[in-house]
Design goal:
Helix content: 40-55%
CATH superfamily: Vaccinia Virus protein VP39
Shape: globular
CATH architecture: 3-Layer(aba) Sandwich
Radius of gyration: 19 Å
Number of domains: 1
Order of helices and strands: HHHEHEHEEHEHHEHHEE
Strand content: 25-35%
């Protein structure tokens, strides 16, 4: 079972590396911000924006620079991630900005928001249906949500290796594209788009070290014994390495919806 404390601890440890090395997350923030800017050119003064899961501020920076007349409420589960986001956006002048430590599975800020945004965070939710219902209730009439999240078949070959060796997979269980669309069915004006992002690593061990270093590793309290981990690495390398590298696939779903 996903542990909010474990996720927070993982990302707090990985804050510095995340800023340098989270290339997929940077790419997704670029695409999501472009989607937002295409649909929302010039929001009026005082428009309220809530960000859920800001990380170190990849998306936050872009939104604040583009929408200085807006009022921002920025949240994250990790105190260190949130502090890093505060530092990176300190020189950006906006009408109002507030930073809140927040576990979005327990509660999200009240306030009547005109826009909710989230990049690469919803896959960590232990109750996405409840979260989406909370978001819907916090949005003003005609309010919008823009999000990106990992879905199946992200890391499919790694999960298949765990299954073959009869070892419980400790990572998050991703929703499918159709499941996520169904969860957001209460919204209107729905637009979804999915893409696959690929990254190359020297071997499976390098890939796992990368995930752990940026805080995106095991979010459960269930560990993998060293001997079993070696078996996983050896089998995954033997089946999926090509030209001295392995390729990890991230499947990302983007959504732009209206209340």
């Amino acid at each position: 079972m996903i542990s909010a404390k474990k996720i927070s601890d993982n990302f707090s440890r990985g804050t510095a590396a995340y800023d340098r090395m989270a290339s997929c997350q940077k790419h997704v923030a670029e695409k999501l911000s472009a989607m937002i800017f295409k649909q929302v050119q010039a929001p009026g003064a005082g428009v309220k924006i809530l960000e859920l899961g800001c990380g170190t501020g990849f998306l936050t920076e872009k939104l604040m620079e583009k929408f200085p007349a807006c009022e921002f409420t920025i949240t994250d589960l990790s105190g260190k991630m949130l502090s890093r986001c505060v530092e990176k956006t300190s020189a950006i002048a906006v009408r109002k900005k507030e930073f809140i430590l927040c576990d979005f599975d327990k509660s999200i800020p009240d306030g009547g928001f005109d826009m909710v945004v989230s990049s690469m965070a919803f896959q960590w939710s232990s109750g996405l249906e409840r979260l989406v219902s909370s978001i819907y209730s916090r949005l003003n009439p005609d309010g919008r949500i823009f999000f990106s999240m990992l879905i199946e078949p992200t890391f499919a070959t790694l999960r298949e290796t765990f299954l073959e060796l009869k070892i419980p997979y400790p990572g998050p269980q991703f929703n499918s594209d159709s499941q996520v669309r169904g969860i957001f069915s209460a919204f209107s004006g729905k637009h979804f788009h999915a893409e696959t992002f690929k990254e190359r690593y020297k071997d499976t061990a390098s890939f796992l070290r990368h995930l752990n270093s940026i805080g995106a590793g095991n979010p459960t309290c269930r560990g993998v014994l060293p001997g079993r981990l070696r078996n996983i690495i050896e089998m995954h390398n033997s089946k999926h390495s090509a030209s001295n590298f392995i390729e990890a696939e991230y499947r990302i779903l983007y959504g732009a919806l209206k209340k």
